[in-house]
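Interim report, section 4.2 (structural modelling).
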Amino acid sequence: MDASALQLIIPIAGIAAVLFALYLARDVLSRDKGPQAMQDVADTIREGADAFIKRQYTTIAALAVVGAIVIGAVITAFETKDVADTGVFGIDLGIRTGFAFLVGAACSMASGIIGMYISVRSNVRTAAAARRSLVEAVQVAMRGGAVSGFLVVALSLLGVYGIFAAFGGLSGGQGTHDAPFLIVGFGFGASFVALFAQLGGGIYTKAADVGSDLVGKVEAGIPEDDPRNAAVIADLVGDNVGDCAGRGADLFESTAAENIGAMILGVGAFAIATAANWPNPQAWIFFPLVVRGFGLLATIVAIFFVRGSETENPMNMLNRGYWVTTILSVVGLLITTNVMMNTGTSVGANGIAPWIWFFLAGVVGLATSVAFVYITQYYTAGTFRPVREIAEASKTGPATNIIAGMAVGFETTFVTAITIGIALFASHWLGTQAGLKAADGHDVGGIFGTAVATMGMLMTTAFILAMDTFGPITDNAGGVAEFSRAEAGAREITDRLDAVGNTTKALTKGYAIASASLAAFLLFSAYIDKVNLIIGRQIEAGTQGARVLLTSVNLANVDVFIAGLIGAMLVYFFSSLAIRAVGTTAQAIIVEVRRQFREMPGIMDYSQRPDYARVVDITTRAALRQMVLPGAVAVATPIIVGLLLGHEAIAGMLMVGTIAGVLLATVLNNGGGAWDNAKKYIESGNLKDEDGNVIGKKTPAHAAAVVGDTVGDPFKDTAGPSLHVLVKLLATITLVLAPLFIR
Amino acid sequence: MDASALQLIIPIAGIAAVLFALYLARDVLSRDKGPQAMQDVADTIREGADAFIKRQYTTIAALAVVGAIVIGAVITAFETKDVADTGVFGIDLGIRTGFAFLVGAACSMASGIIGMYISVRSNVRTAAAARRSLVEAVQVAMRGGAVSGFLVVALSLLGVYGIFAAFGGLSGGQGTHDAPFLIVGFGFGASFVALFAQLGGGIYTKAADVGSDLVGKVEAGIPEDDPRNAAVIADLVGDNVGDCAGRGADLFESTAAENIGAMILGVGAFAIATAANWPNPQAWIFFPLVVRGFGLLATIVAIFFVRGSETENPMNMLNRGYWVTTILSVVGLLITTNVMMNTGTSVGANGIAPWIWFFLAGVVGLATSVAFVYITQYYTAGTFRPVREIAEASKTGPATNIIAGMAVGFETTFVTAITIGIALFASHWLGTQAGLKAADGHDVGGIFGTAVATMGMLMTTAFILAMDTFGPITDNAGGVAEFSRAEAGAREITDRLDAVGNTTKALTKGYAIASASLAAFLLFSAYIDKVNLIIGRQIEAGTQGARVLLTSVNLANVDVFIAGLIGAMLVYFFSSLAIRAVGTTAQAIIVEVRRQFREMPGIMDYSQRPDYARVVDITTRAALRQMVLPGAVAVATPIIVGLLLGHEAIAGMLMVGTIAGVLLATVLNNGGGAWDNAKKYIESGNLKDEDGNVIGKKTPAHAAAVVGDTVGDPFKDTAGPSLHVLVKLLATITLVLAPLFIR
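Predicted structure of the assembly:
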């Protein structure tokens, strides 16, 4: 097959995914919404979520417009003709970058809104389906999640492709060569929005969760999701705005930024291919887009495999679909590498064609994705040692529960780092075997191998995101069932689904971390490529004094070391601000619910309806206020460090910050997930004393486990996921603002 | 004054410090031991501590002998004639390195034993003095601490000097040039012992603390330090073996390793001085020893300034002494730099003599030390925002207490990293202004500036260590007073001293972290110097194929990135193992105390004496067993990474691991200290409700604060301090085993 024919897969797969998502949405929306009581709760949740999203995205949009103008102005001022990395510069480049930033930001916002739109409508339908059938409930929740998964990934694919086309990427030759550098603003815009979406949503959801639990369960002694608790609707709203909208924006920017980074690396291969007269040199740049197109098609097929019997573990149904996606992705990868990495007669190590080496590197990426799915299950599911250990430690109270949970969280970095290390080493080594050498003789294949691995990993993003959104939908379905006092059978099914949803949410975080780590290297290399393009022009122009190319980011250079130290610190400091924001917002909720209990005595005997809307409103305002400081710190710190310490140091900050961020996010996500499931382990009656008696709900051990769960909430759902975004924001910020930092 | 005359200060100050320590020890030992009841408790504590130390150090000594043999064999095999970094190689070098390792290990063990010996005798005398006078109690405790402080620092000074002399360092010329490289084994031996001493002691002390609290305060409802609790003696023993012996070994190895690293950097300056015909080129190598000699003399004077009135805050008395040490150290630094860094007519930037630039760099080090004293106070003392914030969060239960504490812990990295960054940048910049250029034109002064700053900081180590040991002595004095049911007045005084001791212990950790960070850079540079010496020989010999000098530790190199990732992971994984070891050991204690309560019913009405010795014995065995795994992981990981990924990658692991270790230790130490003092803040009646009523002991808020305190225990006294040692172990291990990693 011809490579340019294969490129058609990009728009075809993108549009197919959108159409399929519309079909799924129609399917979900046409389903039974259950009795009026359910619909009432669901309507209240939807109104709260709509109100939050509207206000949050208005704020973010305003910030994004300011951001776009500032970036455009900075680029205009600094990326002048003699320093520009491409033929486009000055005001022209400034406008294009600002425009790309805005398009990226808009697509990212659209992803969040879409995820939210469908999830607040799927929850009640899942609850209604749970009154009849487990399989039907799984399918409603999974299809609702898939709408979000497909649209987010398709938007990212079509968005990057569209802006690439708009900036001349389809012209072939120099236009195609330059376009990847011109679209970096798109990635920055996406990161920028994702940061605030994740922070605002994460603060909202966990403040509502923690606040509602403390004031309801602990203080007033009423059950979770009890309608007498004025904060309970805010809690249910939180699942949607944090987990759905936040994670959607997170993965949108991951795929966009990593895709753009891989295209920049493709430029190096493009030059080699052109020089060597390989067929279709531009295919090396288009490769990331094509491979993602195949991933979307694989996921469409896989959705039909999410089925099973009423007695089956729902996790098995989802796993089945995941494996179908993975296996079909391998096939898609094989086709893509074979067609697009055609090097004519040139061969790599051992006489094996380069495309085979890159195919294997892509398989490494897919394998890493699978590995993380199982690693996360081991550390956060109740059937294995870590969760049992925390549950056992709960017998001696909250202190030992917390200590055990921290030990488990810290421990999870081991297998995470080793797996990432092996994946990076293997994909890099496979890449070097392909024998891609630049004109000056240095190897390009190794880094390109890590890029192929990253893209391989990203093939399954739509399915992963569907599984992720499955989590908050089923969580909400449980809340709706509880709140509307649905029949016990329905609540039993939603409880089972909720437990599975907890696992799938944890899996997605593991996946996001793994892809961020694999991608770190590629984004870092893209930054170096861009810096050297600019410095190369400066050297040619001779206007900037003696300049040398950036061949090494030397840790023995004191500025690099300091920048690395600050990068690692930023990760902790940012998490501190995010965690504290949850505490502050939760306090505001607690004060309000206490007031309602005090001033509306009829609430406790159900004769008065609590003012849910007021709590939702207070939470919304507090969360949006609290997201500003950590967001500003995240954006400002790399810029300040880059300005003070220069372009080599900021690269050190990026790398060390990535390492630190990935590991701390692992600790926070897995620790939090393990605490959560240790509580569930006890609630399910799995913990026993020396004589074999069950230590279940309402025991001191359970109370201790609830403390651990509450501590883990802001870790795993606010700080941890925000760190994913922070890590990639570091990459996109340095990529876009590189001209500012060169000295 | 002549530089070689000034070198005499090294043995003089060392011996003076030893004599002064003996005088202080006589003074303390001659004091009143109080009533028989006090002496009985103290004897029981002493026996337990002796038993632990004997068994621990027997184990460690055996490990050290094995370590020495292995290292000797490895050096013999790998550092052969054509790759040796000096004229000494093969079996000769192997034996010397093994010997230096053993001497370092022995000195480190002696430091631990001495610290312990005097502290278990000062505790009862402090308690007895507290029956009469606050000032006297402060003096007994501080003098007891100073014995340890002086002997540890003097041993480190005389040990490094002695082994340096033994290996030809006093011969002048090539002998002096080579000797710093030959003594690196001394630093490794010290680190090796410190690691196990800190781990074993840290696990012991916190397991006893946590276990005793859980089984006594929480389960049986009896007060802390109540004689009916069989674990209470183990808890008091723990203060000595963990805080005294552990921290003594920690600071011993800090001073030794950093001193040796600075001498290695001095070799570069020595070469420049020789080429330029400056007077006394060898003075650049001797400089670190001389400056530390002045630090010891300054501390001797300062001890006499620890005095005050009965109504004064005891912290003020200690601070007065600390300021005297600092100011006299500035004078000592001025003399040393002026005499020893005599560059004849050569001048640095702006026509200012090089020694002035280096003097200023040294002042930066002293200023950093002062800065950390105040930063730590801000974050861990009850009068400031962070501790108050945690106390306030305790009102809503243990979960919010933990969340607030984690937020504070994470936050402390900000000011830590910024301060270290400024100190590194300033001392490096000042150093570059001195204009020390190597023969190939690259700047040597910058790194040497950071070395001078580190040595400046180390001038106050003896005083800091005295203040640190003050902590466990007063803590123990409180326990002795409580246990022997001493008069209320005495207990009130020991309580006041204990609160001060908590702060001084926290200060020392801040100090240890700051010095480790400053030193990271110098040890790293020493490693690069050593690697390049070896590679230089290999290039000359031409036997090893094409070799290039290590000019850059390039983060863009995938092996370096992976090694950095593993270095940062090691920090978490090691902490996880250390924290879990505390939990496991505490469980063993809880089981035993429960058994005693059950089988000896007379304990509760004081008619039966609990079997304290058995708990001490169980704790000892469990702690020693539990220290092996984290210790082995810490030693093995850098060796494995170095062997697999080579000499450049291991340097990346060292640097990124140091950054990660310093920051995580900051989080653990300060978080733990803040939790501890939040509990004390509530106990002192400072927390109030909305109506101004005190929320004190035995309230739910206090219970929540106790949970935080318990969580913080293994953080701040096991994992955190062990990380200090880990960071320096990474440095000494790479320094000694460098020949193994070169490829």
